[in-house]
Description:
Blueprint: E1 2-8, H1 18-21, H2 26-40, E2 45-47, E3 59-64, E4 67-72, E5 82-89, H3 93-102, H4 104-107, E6 111-116
Antiparallel strand pairs: 1-5, 1-6, 2-5, 3-4
Amino acid sequence: MKFMLLIHHGTTPTPNDREAWATLSSEEQQKVYADYRAINETPGVTPASVQMQPPETATTVRVQNGKALTTDGPFVEMKEALGGYLFFEADDLDAAIELAARIPAARMGGAIEVRPLVER
């Protein structure tokens, strides 16, 4: 089965937010980097390989009456914003949940949405 793991950062300190990131000790920062490195090296993981800019840089697009309307910033509240994603091919949902639990954001104020992909 193939899954997409959507990383919702929530209140997780990230390197993009220097002030919040500075609240973590050097050891905690290195653990986060090591955890993500290990996750990306897990068999079956296809990492996004790119880092997204902060949510406030987003543009949200909607179409009304055939016209594209844009809004600066994300549609969702900042605390719910998507911070990243990866793809994972695993035997079952339990394996995807186990991987999701290893993602630092899951333990640091965020959440990981595990969503099966439609296979054709």
